[in-house]
Design a protein that fits this description.
CATH class of the largest domain: Mainly Beta
Mean pLDDT: 92
Helix content: under 10%
Bound molecules: zinc ion
Strand order of the largest sheet: 6-7-8-10-9
Low-confidence stretches: none
Strand content: over 45%
CATH architecture of the largest domain: Beta Barrel
Largest sheet: 5 strands, mixed, barrel
Length: about 150
C-alpha cells in the first residue's frame, strides 16, 4: 500500500466529497465546456470571451476508444510491467467530450457503453500513488469484473 495519494497534475481534478470532478471552464455566452480550463472560447460561432470556472462530473457514453498496446513515451509514467489499456473518448452527460484512460480491459469495452468518471491510481513512485481521472463501465462495475 502507498502512504500518500497525490493527483498526477494538481488542480485538474479532485474527489473531495466522494464524487470525481474535472475542473474546467465554460463560456459565459455560448456555454461551450472546456477541460482543462481555457482562457478564451474557441467556438467559431461565438463572439464571447468571458469564461467561468466549472466542474464536470457524472456519467457519460463511450463515444470511441483506442488501445495502447505499448508503453507511452516520457514524460508519461506507468507501473511496470506495462499492461495494455484503453483510452476512451467519452461524452459526459453534462455536455463535455473528454479523453481518459479506461479502468476496464480493452476486450470488455464496446462503443456506446455507459461509463462513470472516477479518480483512479495511474502509477506509483517513491512510495506514493499518483492518480488521474479515468472512466469505468457501469455494468462491469456492477458485475464486479476487473
Ligand atoms: Zn463561447
Amino acid at each position: 500500500m502507498s502512504d500518500e495519494i497525490l493527483p498526477c497534475v494538481p488542480g485538474l481534478f479532485d474527489q473531495s466529497g466522494g464524487a470525481a470532478r474535472l475542473h474546467g471552464s465554460r463560456c459565459a455566452s455560448c456555454r461551450t465546456p472546456y477541460f482543462p480550463r481555457s482562457a478564451e472560447c474557441h467556438n467559431p460561432d461565438c463572439g464571447g470571451s468571458r469564461m467561468e470556472d466549472c466542474s464536470f462530473a457524472g456519467n457519460g457514453v463511450l463515444w470511441s476508444f483506442s488501445v495502447a498496446d505499448f508503453p507511452p513515451p516520457p514524460p508519461h509514467r506507468y507501473d511496470k510491467p506495462f499492461v495494455p489499456y484503453a483510452i476512451g473518448v467519452v461524452d459526459l452527460d453534462c455536455g463535455l467530450r473528454v479523453v481518459g484512460q479506461m479502468v476496464d480491459p480493452p476486450s470488455a469495452l464496446r462503443v456506446g457503453d455507459t461509463v462513470e468518471l472516477v479518480i483512479s491510481e495511474l502509477y506509483h513512485e517513491d512510495g506514493k500513488a499518483f492518480t488521474s481521472w479515468k472512466f469505468r463501465q457501469l455494468a462491469a462495475a456492477a458485475a464486479g469484473s476487473e
